[in-house]
Automatic annotation (TrEMBL), chain A:
Domain ABC transmembrane type-1 positions: 109-326
UniProt name for this protein: ABC-type sugar transport system, permease component
Organism, scientific name: Streptomyces griseoflavus Tu4000
Family: Belongs to the binding-protein-dependent transport system permease family.
Main location: membrane
Matching InterPro entries: ABC_transporter_permease, MetI-like, MetI-like_sf
Cellular compartments per GO CC: plasma membrane
Gene3D superfamilies: MetI-like
UniProtKB/TrEMBL annotation, chain B:
Topology in the lipid bilayer: Multi-pass membrane protein
Transmembrane parts of this sequence: 36-57, 101-122, 134-155, 167-186, 207-229, 267-286
Family of this protein: Belongs to the binding-protein-dependent transport system permease family.
Source taxon at top rank: Bacteria
Listed SUPFAM superfamilies: MetI-like
Official protein name in the record: Carbohydrate ABC transporter permease
PROSITE patterns: ABC_TM1
Record InterPro entries: MetI-like, MetI-like_sf
Start and end residues of each ABC transmembrane type-1 domain: 96-286
GO biological process: transmembrane transport
Length: 337, 301, 452
């Protein structure tokens, strides 16, 4: 591209092909027809190309993503077991209404909320900080980048073994360290808040580097001169971060918040492996059972496909409600400011 | 103000101007990391890497030693022996090939398709844009744990069991990728650049090729890395649909290691280690892509 | 408003390194294309592989197994292939049954993706017999297979009400009590296995009483038994009816045998006789290595676990005594799905693998105790010894135990109920909760898990 953005001519109205520079001779008939043909092609392109670009995603989704959703939706209205998935008995909304009385569901919901907050907020803050540091000119930066994604790449089986050893009550390393400073051993797997803290730690460990990488990629796209102008205006590094980096990163921050929220609502791998029992009850008293784990337990361990599907769709509905509330609040905030 | 933006190897006037800038002006990529930065990074690196290193330590021990307390903190003698057993027993050569194909196709396709879809959602105007974007995000909100059951029914009907395409195609649906690229392009792709290309007569496809892909390169690299790892480490679905005697992926292949009435943890760890090493290599390669021009933009002094 | 400018990385004339960017895009498109082509090509090619074409006219039989089988390690495949040169055997193994079984269920319900031979664990056999029997061939009709070749209760477990036997038994887990001679001696208890067996013959309550005697003398840093889960499991396994009655109804809450077992275990927990551990977790492994407990409910494979987790100096310090009442823990079956490509050959293989001679060989190498009574007379069993138990004739002890096991009513959700009673029940008593609280947590969890 030879044109520079700041000196480019603005496109003419109507999205037609670029206007001709002033002073050139009037077009011939043939030229007029060619221009008209190009203009039509241009209009078609403007009109239909977006659909062409988003079509592949939707086609793939229609082929491989839609049927599972419809199936679980349909199954949620029936009583159906994994051992006979085509043997469905209609129960209407019973699987949904029973959730209101289901103390295990609400226990899991509360746990999901607390684990979600404890694990997501520090994680995103740290990810931002790490990304900022990695954005500096560093020696061996590739090494740090590899290290950053290592937790995400480490096999879950290996990672969970390490963490169970760390958080063991009798022989765990953390209790051993606590013993050094005179604190009594903590039953990390047994009690409610210690176990939720431990599970959150595993989640933070696993996903911070992941989010840091996302922030880092976005930071690479911030133009250099924005920093320069801010500096010339006298801004310190911290103020530059606040007033240049963060605003530029807003779309990406929104992305990580949305995706982390969705992820936090669905978390089940980490609590499943922290328990190490054969079932999936999230601890003897379900103290760290999340909604995702409850869903897994009802569907895969207890084989109640209908009930589990209803739980899955209820989780979806909860997220929608959260999203709507979020929208209303931010609209209020914007309106009042 | 700073309306002239020229490449760094530039006129002496600008270079002089740059050298007069206060140190804080050279924020972002051109600033060197201070000792605090390095300290934080080193702590972070140790915390990130130590489970992986412990996997290697465990793989170098034997099952008996792993049951003892305190657990081993340094390497034993069995590393190569266990790695060899794991490699042969799990037939990892074939599994690596299969998984590279699956993860590579998956990552490559997702990156390309997500970028163009993300571009359309971010920068192009079309009817239904907001509604479709909300649908994209909506598809992420349904927990995926149960999806494999109907998916398996589909695959059984298609007669795709034990074929790699059964693993590849479902993995191509990535709302995450579309959403990610949209947000990135909103920030990283100025409208003026697109306008400029349009003025020059570029059709949408040319815009994508010449403007969008270059602008999106760091994000494409990141998305590629994340997708590659996710597909590589996926266990539930490949295990359901593939077999070790047919076309296994790495996670399927190592699922049988260390078997016996008493599982041999050292072998299991050896398999886990072997399965992770190729990923580190992929990171090293793709990691360089994220940097882009920041390093080139560095100014001396 | 400053004009937005491109970041430095983009400010090359021409838009950056054209080669790298183009290469990336081309690579992506090429890989997509290759994938599609490969996908289309694979459809045709793989139809005949996987069973018949083992190369040179050989038939390949595939097995789907989980971790405890051990046929390959015992060299049985090589032996069978030598006896039958036109057969090749290939196995698909997963270490954990928790992964294996859900996949098996999915494959059975879609009747797709099944191997020629599929293993089934005893915890799942009731459910498979109850819901998937029509997907399996009837092994009792296979040539040379006779019902009395297996322990009667083992045969019954795999037989549907219609009389169809969907699987042949491989191994069983007859339980005895393994105890530490040295720790018993320190606590003033007898160490001879006959004497020890007399301490608690016929009654689990007497077992608890022995535990109290142990605790009085042995001090604080040691426990009588390894875990509450192990105890309640052993007690329940020796009952004829536990969670289901003969008609298939769930009776776990009303069956006095279950409540008694729970209360007994809770009593042991309150008295500090059992460790606050869950079996097979890393912390439990460590208590073995550190010799922290004196007894454990012990099928033959548990000796292997003890050996695998113990320090070398523990060898020879264990012995095996008869349990108050015999029960079974563990064991598997091999079934042949109807949808396999080589049903007859698979049936022959299964019959051979579960024959007494092969079971005896497997016991020697893997420690999997035979379910064929004829194997009990074999040299491998009668002469069996284990490092941990020194010279004890474990083969004889376990054979006796195996014959004493009652025919127990099993049901599809046995494991779920069992897990609820241990992981959500008695373990809580060791953490200080009352018996009532623990029972309530357990039953609430179980009922929720059973409720369709």
């Amino acid at each position: 591209m030879a044109t520079r953005p700041d000196t480019a001519a603005l496109p003419s109205k109507g999205g037609a092909a670029p206007g001709r520079p002033p002073g050139s001779p009037a077009p011939t008939d043939q030229e007029k027809r060619r221009r008209a043909k190009l203009s039509r092609r241009w209009q078609r392109d403007m009109r239909w190309s977006p659909y062409a670009f988003v079509a592949p995603f939707f086609l793939l989704f229609l082929a491989f993503g839609l049927f599972p959703l419809i199936y679980t939706g349909w199954a949620s209205l029936h009583q159906v077991e994994l051992t006979a998935p085509t043997d469905m008995n209609w129960v209407g909304l019973k699987n949904y209404t029973r959730i209101f009385d289901d103390e295990f569901f609400w226990n899991a919901a509360k746990n999901t909320l607390t684990i979600g907050i404890i694990s997501t907020v520090p994680q995103l803050l740290m990810a931002m900080g790490i990304a900022h540091i990695l954005n500096y000119k560093l020696r061996a930066s590739t090494f740090y980048r590899v290290a950053m994604l290592a937790p995400y790449a480490t096999s879950i089986a290996a990672a969970s073994l390490v963490f169970v050893l760390l958080f063991g009550r009798d022989y765990g390393m953390i209790n051993w360290a606590l013993d050094f400073v005179g604190i009594d051993p903590v039953d990390w797997q047994g009690e409610k808040w210690p176990s939720q803290f431990a599970v959150s730690t595993i989640i933070i460990w696993r996903w911070t580097g992941y989010n840091a990488l996302i922030y880092l990629a976005a930071m690479q796209a911030i133009p250099q001169d924005l920093y320069e102008s801010a500096a010339l205006d006298g801004a310190s590094r911290w103020r530059q971060f606040l007033h240049v980096t963060l605003p530029s990163l807003r779309p990406t921050i929104l992305f990580t918040v949305v995706v982390s929220t969705i992820g936090a609502s669905q978390v089940f791998g980490e609590p499943l492996l922290f328990d190490a029992n054969k079932g999936a009850s999230g601890g003897a008293e379900h103290q760290f059972q999340t909604l995702g784990l409850y869903l897994y337990e009802q569907g895969w361990v207890n084989q109640h496909l209908g009930r589990a599907s209803a739980i899955a769709w209820t989780m979806f509905a909860i997220l929608i409600v959260v999203g709507i509330i979020n929208q209303l609040i931010s609209r209020r905030l914007r309106a009042s400011s | 103000m700073t309306t002239t933006v020229t490449p760094p190897e530039t006129s002496p006037a600008t270079a002089q101007k740059r050298s007069l800038l206060p140190k804080s002006a050279r924020a972002g990529g051109t600033l060197h990391g201070g000792p605090i930065a390095y300290a934080i990074l080193i702590v972070f690196t140790i915390v990130s890497l130590f489970p992986l290193i412990w996997t290697a330590i465990a793989a170098s021990r034997d099952n008996q030693r792993l049951a003892e307390n305190p657990p081993p903190f340094w390497f034993g003698a069995n590393l190569f022996k266990n790695l060899e057993i794991a490699w042969k027993d799990a037939n990892l050569g074939e599994a690596f090939l299969n998984t590279t194909i699956v993860a590579g196709i998956s990552a490559g396709t997702i990156v390309v398709l997500s970028t163009i879809a993300g571009f359309a959602f971010a920068k192009l105007r079309f009817r239904g844009r907001n509604a479709l974007m909300l649908i994209v995000i909506g598809t992420m909100m349904v927990p995926p744990q149960l999806s494999v059951i109907p998916l398996y029914m589909m695959v059984a009907k298609l007669d795709w069991t034990d074929q790699l395409q059964a693993v590849i195609f479902p993995s191509l649906v990535s709302a995450f990728g579309v959403f990610f690229m949209r947000q990135y392009l909103l920030q990283a792709l100025p409208d003026e650049v697109i306008e400029a290309a349009r003025v020059d007569g570029a059709s949408s496809w040319r815009v994508v090729w010449h403007v969008v892909f270059p602008a999106a390169r760091p994000a494409m690299a990141v998305l590629g890395m994340l997708t590659f790892v996710q597909t590589w480490n996926d266990f539930l679905w490949p295990f359901l649909v593939l077999t070790q005697t047919g076309n296994p992926t790495v996670q399927v292949a190592v699922a049988g290691l260390g078997r016996g009435y008493t599982p041999d943890q050292s072998l299991i760890m050896a398999g886990a280690l072997l399965g992770t090493l190729p990923l580190l290599l992929v990171f090293a390669i793709f990691g360089k892509q994220i940097v882009g021009g920041i390093m080139q933009g560095a100014v001396k002094g | 408003m400053r004009a937005r400018t491109l970041p430095l990385s983009r400010q090359r004339s021409g838009g950056g390194k054209p080669i790298a960017r183009k290469a990336l895009a081309i690579a992506a498109v090429v890989s997509l294309g290759t994938g599609l082509l490969a996908g289309c090509a694979d459809d045709g090619g793989d139809d005949d592989s996987g069973s018949s074409s083992g190369g040179e006219g050989k038939t390949t039989i595939t097995l789907g197994l989980f971790g405890t089988m051990g046929f390959k390690e015992a060299g049985l495949y090589a032996e069978y292939e030598k006896l039958n040169p036109d057969i090749k055997i290939a196995e698909n193994v997963v270490e954990r049954n928790e992964n294996y079984y859900p996949a098996l269920v999915n494959h059975l319900t879609t009747n797709s993706g099944l191997m020629d031979v599929q293993a089934i664990e005893v915890a799942n056999i009731a459910e498979v017999v109850g819901t998937q029997a029509d997907k399996f061939t009837d092994m009792s009709k296979v040539e040379g297979v006779k019902k009395d070749g297996w322990l009667p209760w083992k045969w019954e477990q795999a037989t549907a009400k219609s009389g169809q036997t969907i699987g042949l038994g491989t191994d069983v887990g007859p339980m005895a009590i393994c105890y530490r001679k040295d720790l018993f001696e320190k606590a003033g208890l007898p160490t001879d296995r006959e004497e020890v067996g007399k301490l608690w013959a016929g009654d689990w309550k007497k077992f608890i009483e022995t535990g109290e005697k142990y605790k009085k003398k042995a001090g604080k840093d040691t426990f009588f038994m390894d875990s509450p889960g192990g105890l309640i499991n052993a007690v329940l396994s020796s009952e004829e009816q536990k969670f289901y009655d003969a008609s298939g109804e769930v009776i776990y809450k009303t069956n006095p045998a279950v409540k008694d077992a729970f209360d007994l275990t809770a009593e042991a927990a309150e008295k500090g006789l059992v460790q606050s551990q869950t079996q097979f977790q890393p912390a439990w492994d460590t208590t073995i290595a550190n010799s922290k407990f004196a007894t454990i409910a012990c099928p033959p494979w548990m000796l292997g676990t003890i050996k695998g987790k113990s320090k070398p100096d523990s060898a020879g310090k264990w012995d095996v005594a008869v349990a108050p009442k015999s029960g079974n823990w563990g064991g598997s079956f091999l079934g042949v799905p109807k949808s396999g490509k080589n049903v007859e050959e698979a049936q022959k293989l299964v019959a051979w693998l579960t024959a007494p001679e092969q079971q005896a060989k497997l016991f020697k190498v893997q420690g999997s105790f035979p379910s064929a009574p004829a194997a009990y007379e074999s040299a491998e069993v009668t002469g069996a010894k284990n490092e941990m138990t020194g010279d004890s004739p474990i083969g004889e002890i376990f054979s006796e135990a195996a014959k004493q096991i009652p025919v127990q009513v099993i049901g599809p959700k046995d494991q779920i109920i069992q897990q609820g009673l241990t992981d959500n029940g008695v373990i809580l008593v060791t953490k200080g909760k009352s018996v009532e609280e623990a029972w309530e947590t357990a039953t609430k969890t179980i009922d929720n898990n059973l409720d369709k």
